[in-house]
Write a structure and sequence with these properties.
Oligomer: single chain
Number of helices: 4
Helix content: over 70%
Order of helices and strands: HHHH
Strand content: under 5%
Length: 75
Amino acid sequence: MANKDITRLKSVIDYCQKIEEKINKYGNDIDDFIDNSEYRDLCSFYVLQIGEQTKKLISGDNKKLSGDKLEQVVL
């Protein structure tokens, strides 16, 4: 796996952790999410970034990342 792919996967993990932080800060209630534009905007931005990083991974070599390779990056 190329270093740039590892960097992208680490970015995805970072964005997931940021979403988790926002859930912990603002609450895990759909009404809180709907009523709070800052909460929605932040989480939406992070999800968009995850999509961009994932798209680069998939389109880069047209290969799918196997579970074993992903597990190596996470661990």
